[in-house]
Design goal:
Homotetramer. The chain contains eight helices and 17 strands. By secondary structure, the protein is α+β, with helices and mostly antiparallel strands. It has two domains: about 200 residues, Fructose-1,6-Bisphosphatase, subunit A, domain 1 (Fructose-1,6-Bisphosphatase, Chain A, domain 1); about 120 residues, D-Maltodextrin-Binding Protein, domain 2. The strands form four sheets. An eight-stranded mixed β-sheet has the order 4-3-5-6-7-8-9-10, with helices on both faces. Helix 1 runs antiparallel to helix 2 and helix 2 runs antiparallel to helix 3. The longest helix is centred in the N-terminal third of the chain and has 22 residues. The chain binds 2,5-anhydro-1,6-di-O-phosphono-D-mannitol (AHM) and magnesium ion.
Length: about 350
C-alpha cells in the first residue's frame, strides 16, 4: 500500500462510517465486530508463531463433535473467540464448530441481541504444513425475546437473514473479508500498527474464471451430474482450453483465491459410501457466510441440486450440505448439468 497514512481507512473507521449511514443503528454491531477483530488478531499472532512454540503445532488427544482430530491451534482459536464474544455484551448465544451444543452467555454477563456461528480455525489439517487457514463467521439478529438467554432457534436461521458474514485468512498476510449486509470489503492486517486497513474496497468476483477447486480424489463417489460437469470443464473438445485445477483443502483459502481470480469451488456429496452423504461442509458457519459473500460480490452459491444456499432452512447446528460456489457464469454452467 503506497497511499499516505491519512488516505488509509482502518476497519474501525469503516464500521463507524457504515453505522452512521443507518440512523437507527445503536453501535452494538460495531462494538461486536471490534471484539471479534481483537480475537482474530490474537489468533493471527499465534498462527504466526506456530513452529516456534512447542505447544502450538500438532494434535490434541481429543476429537471434536464431527469426530475429527482437534489440533492445538483449533482448541486455542475456539477458546479465544468464544471467551471474548460470549462476554462482550452483544450476543445472546453462540455456536462453534468445535462445540457440540450451543454456547450460552456466562452468568453475570450482559445478554445482547446478536448471534454468531463460527468456525474458529477452518482447514486445520493444513496447520502443521504451514498452509493458509482461516476463521469463518456468520451474524444473525436473535428471534427470541430480548434480554432472555438465547436458544438454538436463534442460530438456526436462513443464510439470507444474516446481518453480517466474513472470514479471516491467515495467509501470506492476514486478511479480513467482510460483508455487513451489502457489498464486500477486504481489510489487510498491518502488523506494524496492529490495525486492519481497507485494502480491497468493493470486492467483485470476476463473472467467469478459469479455475476449478474440488477434491478430485473423491471422483468415484460423485453423482453422474458432477462427474459429467468436471469432465466437461477439463475437456479440450472443440479446441477449448481446459480449466486449471487449484485445490488447497482450506475452504477459506480456496474461496479467497476464487473471489479474487474467478473460478468455481465444489464440495459435492458422497453417493457411494456413508462418509459424507449430505456433503462435508457445515451450513451455518462455513457455507452460508461464504454464500452471502459470494452473492454480494456478484457470484453465486448453490447446492449440487441447484438450490440457492441462502434459502436453505437449517435444522441442526452442525448440519452439513453440498456446496457449489463461485463466478456467476461458472455456477450457471454447472447448473446446466443438473437433471431437470
Ligand atoms: P475443517 O473444518 O475440519 O477444517 O474441515 C473443512 C475443510 C475445508 O476447509 C475444506 O474445504 C475441506 O475441509 C477439505 O476437505 P477434504 O480434505 O475432504 O478435501
Ligand atoms: Mg471448518
Amino acid at each position: 500500500m503506497s497511499a499516505h497514512p491519512t488516505q488509509l481507512m482502518s476497519l474501525s473507521q469503516y464500521l463507524i462510517e457504515e453505522q452512521l449511514k443507518l440512523p437507527q443503528a445503536t453501535g452494538d454491531f460495531t462494538a461486536l465486530m471490534s471484539h471479534l477483530v481483537y480475537a482474530a488478531k490474537v489468533v493471527s499472532r499465534e498462527v504466526r508463531k506456530a513452529g516456534l512454540l512447542e505447544n502450538i503445532l500438532g494434535a490434541t488427544d481429543q476429537t471434536n463433535v464431527q469426530g475429527e482430530t482437534v489440533m492445538k491451534l483449533d482448541e486455542y482459536a475456539d477458546k479465544i473467540f468464544t471467551h471474548t464474544l460470549t462476554r462482550c455484551g452483544h450476543l445472546c448465544v453462540m455456536g462453534s464448530e468445535e462445540q457440540e451444543e450451543i454456547i450460552p452467555i456466562p452468568t453475570g454477563y450482559k445478554i445482547g441481541k446478536y448471534t454468531i456461528a463460527i468456525d474458529p480455525l477452518d482447514g486445520s489439517s493444513n496447520i502443521d504444513a504451514n498452509v493458509s487457514i482461516g476463521t469463518i463467521f456468520s451474524v444473525h439478529l436473535r428471534t427470541s425475546p430480548q434480554g432472555t438467554p438465547g436458544v438454538k432457534e436463534d442460530l438456526l436461521q436462513k443464510g439470507s437473514k444474516q446481518r453480517a458474514a466474513g472470514y479471516i485468512v491467515y495467509g501470506s498476510s492476514t486478511m479480513l473479508v467482510l460483508c455487513v449486509g451489502k457489498g464486500v470489503s477486504g481489510f489487510t492486517l498491518d502488523p506494524s500498527c496492529g490495525e486492519f486497513i481497507l485494502s480491497h474496497p468493493e470486492m467483485k468476483m470476476p463473472e467467469s474464471g478459469g479455475i476449478y477447486s474440488i477434491n478430485e480424489g473423491n471422483y468415484d463417489y460423485w453423482s453422474d451430474e458432477v462427474k459429467n460437469y468436471i469432465r466437461n470443464i477439463k475437456s479440450i473438445e472443440g479446441g477449448r482450453k481446459p480449466q486449471s485445477l487449484r485445490y488447497i483443502g482450506s475452504l477459506v483459502a480456496d474461496f479467497h483465491r476464487n473471489l479474487l481470480k474467478g473460478g468455481i469451488f465444489l464440495y459435492p456429496n458422497d453417493t457411494k459410501s456413508s462418509k459424507y452423504p449430505k456433503g462435508k461442509l457445515r451450513l451455518l458457519y462455513e457455507v452460508a457466510p461464504m454464500a452471502l459473500i459470494a452473492e454480494q460480490a456478484g457470484g453465486m452459491a448453490v447446492t449440487v441440486e441447484g438450490k440457492r444456499i441462502l434459502d436453505l432452512e437449517p435444522e441442526e447446528l452442525h448440519e452439513r450440505t453440498t456446496f457449489v460456489v463461485g463466478s456467476k457464469k461458472e455456477v450457471e454452467h454447472f447448473l446446466t448439468f443438473i437433471k431437470k
